Please model this.
Amino acid sequence: MKIATYNVNGVNGRLPVLLRWLEETQPDVVCLQELKAPEEKFPEQAIKDAGYNAIWHGQKSWNGVAILARNLEIKESRRGLDGDPEDLQSRYIEATVNGVLIGCLYLPNGNPAPGPKFDYKLQWFERFAAHAAKLLASGTPVILAGDYNVIPTELDAYKPERWVEDALFRPETREAFKNLLAQGWTDAIRKLYPDETIYTFWDYFRNAYGRNAGLRIDHFLLSPTASERLISAGVDREVRGWEKTSDHGPVWITLKAE
Model:
């Protein structure tokens, strides 16, 4: 079972890139972030024509998350997180696909930091961690995939000293991620590649992709019962080099059958 996460940076504007990638790689399940489209503007038919069922949680101009599944049923279990009834941002959707519970998330960026946006990031992180703990306690195979907007360690950034004051790398952000992992989650990429330089995001500016001046901010966190099934993981880095593409590359893992 191949599961991917991809911040598309505008699902309609980047639709040709998304469809080409789906056709070339054919993942079984895909978590998308930054749809930047309201509910009614999600390209459901084009996705269906590509062979995928879909559920989505949209929002005009910003945010938005979706889960796609190829020839598999998607049983939605949640959209949004508990803890703040006034939070209307579309950043979390969850479903069971093929016996695996999948949470697709787009964690707030938090810049400029410090400030209200950074406070929101940390508050959202707290709510997410509380929900993650409940999922972990269920004992079922759980995968929390998406754009976390977290650079976990210096290994995950090109020239990390440049990111010290950024919301993605501030001590509070890294501590929140560390505490989340400490619940019992496994960072899939680091389980398989503990010491390798691996990036998932390259800015549009200063030829970042060409220089491989990237960040690793898109992550797969696996519960113990999912982690023991992990076979492989990687980044479809070349997609970042396509024309009119997202500034993220798709990240994927494969799990062996139960």
Summary: Residues 116-137 form the longest helix (22 residues).
